[in-house]
């Protein structure tokens, strides 16, 4: 079995596809259908549709599917576990071509679950969370409503049915696939629930495709049907990617806590760029001085935490523009960075586009949803390490864990148990 993953942003594409890389499959994330993906068994494409209209997002998603799908290949439509973006319109565009949409956004390992057809975040209804209120304060978070608005007929698979008799579950899913239903919303509150779903869904003879976050992807990656016949990649990764540039475009409370812990434990230099500078870009009078400040830090071999500031004029809708300009500010000095950690899908994509990286070979998962990889094509003879992470995602430890990985470092004992690596770094032994 081979797989095509279609995601609406880069960090989402990576945090879904990394499950397959971690299982040993040759896995590539690409920014465009025309970029090189080598002989990858799993290809994930970022269609960059988060900020488009629903109709535009559907058209671009279908175009990516038609350009990349191969005979016998399965489809996984990656969606955000908190239902951001135009996911329902994108599923609607794919459904007529790919069959029944099996919708399971749950990611229990990160606190995202689905019960009675509703998404919960750490047990809290999605509509009441900061993440939802920030972008969708005036919209319903009901999945059935969203899918119906995209023109789809919806059925539901409840938790008792999912956890019941396996043969009955298979018959029920087949019946739904043969009915007039076009999307099946599946409850799941544990990783075991997703494992059951992955096994049952692969037995369907009727045309279908998965719609989920990184949670369901992890269970599919471990299926015998998927592993069978695979040409597994061997990962021997013990390099140090320094200096490390940490690029944070997200203004979420999650990212704020992650930055605070990173600064506390590493003493990394922090530069916060005012939105006013990024709004005007190179036209701003202080642009060159900010560019020089970044260059001075990296040229000295120092790690740098570079963030977008916030002011009274800030509007969440300008996020893509600010991320693009932040990447432009970095571009002339990027060659001095050995590794980069990019938080926020728009920020990660903007950076890779700015420096000419079209595809990443994924190699390892730093922690749940935090992916590490390297460019398929070398840049001036080098392949910098790249870590991507969604903005409002991950533990408070996530950025620090990514920094440890890129620096081939072990976590000091006073902070907890470390994992790998360079015995000399931080004066520790493994």
Automatic annotation (TrEMBL):
Keywords: ATP-binding, Carbohydrate metabolism, Kinase, Nucleotide-binding, Transferase. InterPro entries: 4-carb_acid_sugar_kinase_N, 4-carb_acid_sugar_kinase_N_sf, NBD_C, NBD_C_sf. Gene3D superfamilies: Four-carbon acid sugar kinase, nucleotide binding domain, Putative sugar-binding, N-terminal domain. It comes from the Bacteria. GO terms for molecular function: kinase activity. It holds the Pfam family NBD_C. The keyword Cell cycle does not apply. Coiled coil: none annotated. Residues 245-399 form the Four-carbon acid sugar kinase nucleotide binding domain. The keyword Cell division does not apply. Residues 3-219 form the Four-carbon acid sugar kinase N-terminal domain. Belongs to the four-carbon acid sugar kinase family. This is Four-carbon acid sugar kinase family protein.
């Amino acid at each position: 079995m081979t797989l095509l993953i279609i995601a609406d942003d880069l960090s989402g594409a990576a945090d879904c596809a990394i499950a397959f890389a971690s299982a040993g499959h040759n896995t590539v994330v690409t920014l465009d259908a025309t970029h090189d993906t080598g002989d990858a068994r799993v290809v994930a494409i970022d269609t960059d549709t988060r900020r488009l209209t629903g109709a535009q997002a559907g058209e671009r998603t279908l175009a990516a599917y038609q350009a990349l799908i191969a005979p016998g290949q399965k489809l996984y439509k990656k969606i955000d576990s908190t239902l951001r973006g135009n996911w329902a319109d994108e599923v609607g565009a794919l459904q007529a071509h790919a069959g029944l949409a099996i919708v399971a956004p749950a990611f229990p390992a990160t606190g995202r679950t689905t019960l009675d057809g509703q998404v919960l975040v750490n047990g809290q209804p999605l509509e009441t969370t900061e993440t939802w209120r920030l972008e969708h304060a005036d919209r319903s978070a009901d999945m059935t409503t969203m899918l119906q608005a995209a023109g789809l007929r919806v059925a539901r698979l409840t938790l008792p049915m999912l956890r019941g008799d396996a043969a009955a579950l298979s018959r029920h899913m087949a019946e739904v696939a043969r009915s007039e239903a076009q999307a099946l919303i599946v409850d799941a509150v544990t990783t075991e629930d997703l494992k059951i779903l992955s096994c049952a869904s692969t037995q369907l003879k009727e045309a279908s495709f998965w719609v989920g976050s990184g949670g369901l992807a992890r269970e599919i990656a471990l299926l015998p049907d998927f592993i069978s016949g695979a040409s597994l990649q061997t990962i021997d990764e013990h390099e140090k990617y320094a200096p490390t540039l940490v690029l944070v475009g997200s203004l979420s409370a999650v990212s704020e806590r992650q930055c605070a812990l990173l600064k506390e434990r590493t003493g990394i230099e922090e530069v916060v760029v005012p939105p006013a500078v990024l709004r005007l870009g190179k036209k701003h009078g202080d642009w060159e001085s900010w560019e020089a400040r970044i260059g001075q830090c990296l040229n000295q071999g120092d790690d740098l935490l570079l963030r977008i500031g916030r002011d009274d004029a800030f509007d969440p809708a300008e996020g893509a523009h600010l991320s693009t300009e932040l990447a432009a500010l970095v571009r002339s000095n990027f060659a001095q960075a050995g590794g980069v950690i990019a938080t926020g899908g728009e920020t990660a994509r903007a950076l890779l586009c700015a420096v000419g990286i079209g595809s990443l070979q994924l190699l390892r998962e730093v922690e749940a949803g935090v992916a590490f990889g390297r460019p398929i094509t070398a840049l001036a003879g080098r392949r910098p390490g790249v870590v991507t992470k969604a903005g409002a995602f991950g533990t408070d430890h996530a950025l620090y864990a990514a920094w440890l990985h890129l620096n081939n470092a072990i976590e000091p004992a006073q902070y907890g148990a470390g994992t790998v690596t360079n015995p000399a770094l931080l004066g520790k032994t493994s």
